[in-house]
Amino acid sequence: MNKILKNLAQCSLSIVLSVSLFTPVSSAASTQVQGNEVLLNSGWSQKEINDLLSEDEIQKYASGEISDTTTHFVKQTIKVKVDQSSKAMSTLQSTPEPTLTPVEGSEERVLLSEEEFYQEMKEYEKAEGNPQAILKLGKKQNSPTSLRAANAEVDYVIPDGYMKYTMQAFKTGSKDYQLNLRFEWLKMPVNRGIDVFALGHGPGLVQTGTQDDLVFTGKYNYVTAGQPIKEANITPISKKTDSGGSFVTFRLDQSSLAYSLAAYRGYLSYHTSVSNSTELTTSVEGYYKHKVSKLTVSPSVSYPLSVGLSISSESSYVTESPTPYFSLKL
Predict the structure, then answer these.
(1) What is the reported pLDDT for 92?
(2) Signal peptide: which range, if any (predicted)?
């Protein structure tokens, strides 16, 4: 009898230990499932979640509900100079392919509808590698007085890159909000340098964390000759929180003959709480500032609440207007 009771006691202890060991894991898994579901319902794809978010980051959204969201579909254009003289002088021979010379700093951004964005990008993909086809997608800016002139150049504005980015606010408590912004270059631009990715808020919210609590995840794909596509992480050059928001800067690298870079994408997020102000609504605004000059000096960036995003060498960056924005009801 004593042996039976001893065995029963050992079994009971094993069950208690098993429950105590595995319950937290089940709870964390459940929280992650809930967070994943909240994100899916807010417009994320499962591929995006798996790609950009850690388990801990997903769990932050478990008790949340989407308060507001906005997505921008952006086409970037660039001016190119096309030498028409060789075309004009070619008579018996077939017309040679024109040489397109990008004009540094001429980039502009155009906000498109989702339908326009994917349709234009599809046409751009078909034209890639074919200068004549690319020009047909662009718009002629001027015509030379004489096609036989020594410098008979024609200016065109053509597509340079396509990116989309989404800004969101989630209510995660009675006075708590999780803000995030994510971007993806679906077609990479010609000129690349140090870009600025920023998310800001009005005085109705207070950023509760520090620089260490600011979450940034960035990735890109690269291909070397004869090798499958591989992924690499974006390493921020700088990362900072300020009274009016947070930002990161990072390098958008050029491709080379040895490898090709593509699909730069990233995610930025931080936690806020409702401030002591009497505001019933507050602004939330996102920025993606793309470097359009070849100078790669890291910019000086700050986000004071009274000014908004402040960046040195502003003229060497391009930003679409309007930027992602919504008025958040508190």
Answers:
(1) 44
(2) 1-28
Q: Read off the tokens for 228.
A: 């499958």
- Residue 93, class by beta-carbon neighbours within 10 Å (0-12 exposed, 13-18 middle, 19+ buried)? exposed
**Does residue 10 form part of some domain?**
no
Q: Is 193 exposed, middle or buried (0-12, 13-18, 19+ CB in 10 A)?
A: buried
The single-letter code of the amino acid at 100 is L
* Six token digits for residue 303: 């986000």
Q: What is the dihedral of CA 234, 240, 241, 242, to 10 degrees?
A: -140
- CA-nearest of 305, 290, 197 to 245 is 305
Task: Pinpoint the alpha helices (H) of the chain.
Answer: 2-41, 46-52, 55-59, 85-89, 114-127, 131-137
DSSP category for residue 104:
T
Q: Which domain holds residue 82?
A: 73-160
Residue 2 lies in a domain: no
Final residue belonging to a domain, choices 100, 127, 160: 160
144-160 pLDDT, tens digit per residue, is 544 444 455 678 999 99
Average pLDDT over residues 100-111: 89
- The answer to whether residues 286 and 165 touch, using CB atoms and an 8 Å cutoff, is yes
Q: Are residues 190 and 215 in the same domain?
A: yes
DSSP per-residue letters across 291-327: E-SS--PPPPEE--TTT--EETTGGGEE--SSPSEEE
**Within this chain, do residues 67 and 131 fall inside the same structural domain, yes or no?**
no
Instruction: Say whether both 119 and 201 belong to one domain.
Output: no
Largest Cα separation within the chain, whole Å, is 112
Are 261 and 244 members of one domain? Answer: yes
Q: What is the mean pLDDT of the chain?
A: 84
Q: How far is CA 261 from CA 134, 256, 264, in A?
A: 21, 8, 8
pLDDT of amino acid 237: 93
Q: Which amino acid is at 183?
A: F
Q: What are phi and psi of 241, to 5 degrees?
A: -105, 150
From 115, 145, 160, the end of a domain falls on 160
How much is the pTM?
0.84
* Percentage, residues of the chain above pLDDT 70: 84
